């Protein structure tokens, strides 16, 4: 199965998991709109929409670098319109952009609370709303949101209630939209990693290089996303996928290829999974 000839709209695709998903699609010959804020280089974060576009084209795809803050409705709708103008439509939306602050109630400024809600829950809702009219015209439309299964164990709320609320808001979009648009044939699914993924968030917020060494690479999420996005949309909707389960279902028996340090067994577990 291939994404050749398909158009993907990926939020936050200038680096990390979003870029990995874009590059995997590009190797099939897909077109990718990179909707992200980073236009100029950031002192602590590698990559911009322009470096991402260059990498996508080098991998064999077509790219559109679109400056877009998904908190801004006008910017989102303009980015979607530009993507349709450039590539003729949208077949896949990947809601990848996310904001994180692992802080307790008293340590979470309302500005940070609002940021997480606006990027995670509201951003996912807005981007989905903006893309759905185009997705309805696709022969195999998919929305894939990088969010966890809903798990109401209090341990996932105790130390960072604000972040959990914002992240679960993304998951509730999946739950509701999968049913709302089932008759339209739009697949709406979530994907979440079993382990930590070696991204800037792990490096900068969760332990630095020692933590990165206990992670998998973004490639496992990219390959899992590719498998999901190439399934028939009417047969694959309403699921909360976990990356290594997807890869086993895809027939991959040796997951060591995705380890930052080959042979690692003591992986950093990700949030929200028991």
Produce the secondary structure layout.
Elements: E1 7-11, H1 16-26, E2 31-36, H2 49-58, E3 62-67, H3 73-87, E4 92-95, H4 110-135, E5 142-145, H5 155-158, H6 161-180, E6 187-192, H7 200-205, H8 208-212, H9 219-229, E7 240-242, H10 243-249
Parallel strand pairs: 1-2, 1-4, 2-3, 4-5, 5-6, 6-7
Number of helices: 10
The N- and C-terminal alpha carbons lie at a distance of 32 Å
Mean of pLDDT: 95
* Portion of residues within helices: 40-55%
Globally, the shape reads: globular
Number of strands: 7
The largest sheet is:
7 strands, parallel
Order of helices and strands: EHEHEHEHEHHEHHHEH
User: What amount of the residues lies in strands?
Assistant: 5-15%
Biggest sheet: strand arrangement: 3-2-1-4-5-6-7
Helix-strand makeup class: alpha/beta
Instruction: Using the CA coordinates, give the radius of gyration.
Output: 17 Å
Spans where pLDDT lies below 50 across 5 or more residues: none
């Amino acid at each position: 199965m291939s994404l050749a000839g398909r158009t993907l709209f990926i939020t936050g695709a200038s680096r990390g998991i979003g870029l990995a998903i874009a590059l995997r699609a590009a190797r099939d010959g897909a077109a990718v709109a990179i909707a992200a804020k980073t236009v100029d280089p950031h002192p602590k974060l590698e990559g911009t929409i322009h470096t991402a576009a260059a990498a996508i084209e080098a991998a064999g795809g077509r790219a559109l670098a679109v400056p877009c803050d998904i908190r801004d409705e006008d910017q989102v709708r303009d980015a979607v319109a530009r993507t349709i103008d450039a590539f003729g439509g949208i077949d896949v939306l990947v809601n990848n952009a996310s904001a994180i602050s692992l802080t307790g109630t008293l340590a979470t400024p309302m500005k940070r609370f609002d940021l997480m809600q606006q990027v995670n829950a509201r951003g996912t809702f807005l981007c989905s709303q903006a893309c759905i009219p185009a997705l309805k015209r696709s022969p195999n439309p998919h929305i894939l949101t990088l969010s966890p299964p809903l798990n109401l164990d209090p341990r996932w709320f105790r130390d960072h209630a604000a972040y959990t609320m914002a992240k679960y808001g993304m998951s509730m979009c999946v739950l509701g939209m999968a049913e709302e648009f089932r008759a339209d044939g739009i697949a709406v699914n979530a994907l979440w990693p079993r382990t930590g993924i070696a991204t800037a968030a792990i490096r900068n917020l969760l332990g630095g290089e020692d933590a990165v060494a206990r992670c998998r690479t973004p490639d496992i999420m990219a390959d899992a996303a590719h498998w999901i996005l190439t399934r028939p949309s009417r047969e694959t909707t309403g699921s909360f996928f976990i990356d290594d389960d997807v890869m086993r279902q895809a027939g991959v028996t040796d997951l060591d290829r995705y380890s930052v340090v080959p042979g690692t067994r003591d992986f950093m577990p990700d949030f929200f999974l028991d």
